[in-house]
Amino acid sequence: MLDRRKFLKSTGALAALSMVPFSGKASELKLSNDEANPVILPKKLKKGDTIGLITPSAPITKEQLNETVKKLEKLGFKTYYKDSVLSEYGYFAGKDQERADELMSMFTNKEVDGILSVRGGYGAIRILDMLDYEAIKQNPKVFMGFSDITAFLNAIYSKTGLVTFHGPLGISTYTDFSWVVFKSVAMEPKSRYLYPYFREPDEAENPEFDLYTINSGKATGNLIGGNISVLDSMTGTEFEPDFADKIVILEEVEEKTYKVDKMLVHLLQATNLKDAAGIAFGTFKDCNINDEPKLTLKQAIEDLFKPLDMPIIYGLPFGHILFNITIPLGIRAQLNANKNTLKLLDFAVG
């Protein structure tokens, strides 16, 4: 159900955004990531389009599927899904091949305009090598999710150049804030888009929701990243993301502080995360959890990242939170750690 919050009427943040109209074609907007792997823009979505629903990780209930359909229809979309969307195999939404086939069928189905993962969970890492990346490249579509879907977002972008979208799942709560940002990124594209900021009203005293600078400065680069536990599981595989010269987004949920610390240390030591252009941490909900003796989440992150020579901020509204913005991976962005802002510098759809 849509969350009609009064804050949108009172804030001037959205109205102040740069909103340059766009009427170009996708074929005219291939951005140069590098000569061997140009960035491919999916076609922008519009009301009336068909969204293919998939469960490539953990299983869902019939009620969760119905609620997802209801929400999307209220937003003006049609939905399509296969019987396999409700499959169960232990803690997976079906066996590996079944989940891989379901995902691929949504890319190759010409009647499907965009693809949305209903939920995350666990399972994406098991089927990355079962996907047909050439077929995905030939059938570019908006593909969105977060959490465990981080694996698909980064693998697809890395293997094909297709821009993918770190944003709400089917089971997410679609607040007005999240919906307006999604439209501004995937439906009504802007040549420049400064992300608005809104702190969740029930989290005023929660330090996990603080927005602050770790290292000042500005940086520009293509966006990449997502959930740190998933990125950690991709380390050492052929799907390990290349963080060099990128603006890296990172988020986590419901992990004790020492476990967050351990995963971040591994990413810093085992990947080229230290070579990033800049880092934007999201909201690490329920991660400021400590046994004695205590070290706060903020202290742990600053200890690890403050020595790095790059702009770094914490607390942008993305991740496992209510007001979750949509971030296109593969698009150039500017991180301004002096003002704690993130701005898209290119269209995310064509």
Q: If helices are DSSP runs of H or I spanning 4 or more residues, what is the number of helices?
A: 10
End-to-end Cα distance = 29 Å
Radius of gyration: 19 Å
CATH 2nd-level architecture of the largest domain: 3-Layer(aba) Sandwich
Structural class: alpha/beta
Strand content: 15-25%
Folded structure, characterized:
- The protein has helices at residues 7-10, 62-74, 96-108, 124-127, 133-138, 150-160, 176-187, 228-234, 257-270, 297-305; strands spanning 50-54, 78-80, 114-117, 142-145, 164-166, 193-194, 212-215, 218-227, 247-251, 278-281, 312-314, 327-329, 332-336, 341-344.
- It is an alpha/beta fold.
- The chain folds into two domains: 25-187, Murein tetrapeptidase LD-carboxypeptidase, N-terminal domain (Rossmann fold, 3-Layer(aba) Sandwich); 193-344, LD-carboxypeptidase A C-terminal domain-like (Glucose Oxidase, domain 1, 3-Layer(bba) Sandwich), CATH 3.50.30.60.
- The strands form two sheets. An eight-stranded mixed β-sheet has the order 6-14-13-8-9-10-11-7. A six-stranded mixed β-sheet has the order 2-1-3-4-5-12.
- Residues 1-34 have low confidence and may be disordered.
Comma- or semicolon-separated keywords:
Rossmann fold; eight-stranded mixed β-sheet; 17% strand; 2 domains; alpha/beta; 10 helices; 14 strands; 350 residues; disordered N terminus; single chain; Glucose Oxidase, domain 1; six-stranded mixed β-sheet
